[in-house]
TrEMBL record:
Homodimer. Zn(2+) 2 binds at residues 189, 192, 212, 215. Zn(2+) 1 binds at residues 173, 176, 226, 229. This is Chaperone protein DnaJ. It comes from Streptomyces netropsis. It holds the Pfam family DnaJ_CXXCXGXG.
Amino acid sequence: MSTKDFVEKDYYKVLGVPKDATEAEIKKAYRKLAREYHPDANKGDAKAEERFKEISEANDVLADPKRRKEYDEARALFGNGGYRPGPGGAGGGSFNFDLGDLFGGAQGGAGAGGFGGGGGLGDVFGGLFNRGGTGTRTQPRRGQDIESEVTLSFTEAVDGATVPLRMSSSAACKACSGTGDKNGTPRVCPTCVGTGQVSHGAGGGFSLTDPCPDCKGRGLIPENPCDVCKGSGRATSSRTMQVRIPSGVSDGQRIRLRGKGAPGERGGPGGDLYVVVHVGTHPVFGRKDDNLTVTVPISYVEATLGGEVKVPTLGGPPVTLKLPAGTPNGRTMRARGKGAVRKDGTRGDLLVTVEVAVPKDLDDKAREALEAYRDATADEDPRAELFQAAKGA
C-alpha cells in the first residue's frame, strides 16, 4: 500500500460508513457490498470486479483496528494539502530534511521540528506502508483477506464438519505465470529501473515514495501484454478448498483461518480466510450455549406418581431419567455429558424440560377413573392460596 493510497483514498466512502463507524457497522457494510459485487454474482463484469477489489482493500484497512488507526493518522497528517512547515516554523528556521530520517526514527530536538525521541512518526509510517523509509526495492505484499459463508445442519454444528468452500480472489495469472507478458519475457521498467517505486517532492522538504505509474509498482513492463490479465500479472482465481469447521460452533460465529485467503505477491504471505457460520434448526433439539435442550411430554400419572422416562439424545442412544413423584409441569432436568462439544473436548449437558400431556380422547374406563378421582379430591382447591393472596395484597 503506497503513501498516496492512504492519503488520497477515502475507505470510509468506499464502504459507505461514517468516520466514527463501529467495527460492527464496518463489518455489516462490507458484507452487504461484497455480496453485491462478488465476481461469482457478476460474471464477466469488469467494473463489478474492480469495485469488489476496492471494497476488499477498504475492509482490509478499516476492519483491522491497528491499520485503521494508522490510516486515520496518515490522512490527518498529510490530507487536505499535507504538512507544509515553512520559514519561522518549529525551531525558528527553515524546516528541511529527508523524510527517510523521519521514517527511520531519527533522534531530534526542538530545532529539528520537535519530533524528538525514538520511534515517533517512524513507528506509524513503518507499519502503515509496510516498508522502511527510503528502501529502493519492492517489498513482498501480503494477500487480501477473504470472507465466505457456510451453512451447517444442526448436527454438523454440534459435532463439527469438513465442508467445501469455493472462493474467488486475486492471484497470479496462470496464463502468463504472473509475468503479465504472453511469452513470459517482460522487460525491466526504465522509469523505476525495476524497483517498482518512484520518489517525488511533497513540499516542505518532504520526499514521498509511490508505486511507479508506468509499471504499476511491478518493476516490469510486458512486451506483449497477456490477453487474460491485460499485462497486470494478476487475475481473478476461483478455487475450492476443504475447510474443517470445529465442533460446537454457534450460529453467526466467525472463524479465522490464517494464511488461507488470497495469495501474497512477490513472496508475501497469504491473507486470512474468515468463515461466517450459519446453523440450521432441528425438529427436536435446541441449543443453549454448550447445552442441548429438548422438551419431553409426560402423562399426568407419571407427573403425579413419578416413574422413569426415556429421553432421545442427538446421534446417540436414549437415556433414562427418573421422575420424582409430584413433578410439576415445565420442570427441567439434566442429562450430563449429552450436550454439545466444548472447546476443551468435553461435552455440555442435555436439558430436559417435561411437559404434562393432556389426553384429547378418553375411553369410558379412563373417564370413570378420572371422575372417581375428582370426587375423591373434591375438598381440595388448588386455587385457594391464589385467591387468599389476592385478597391480602
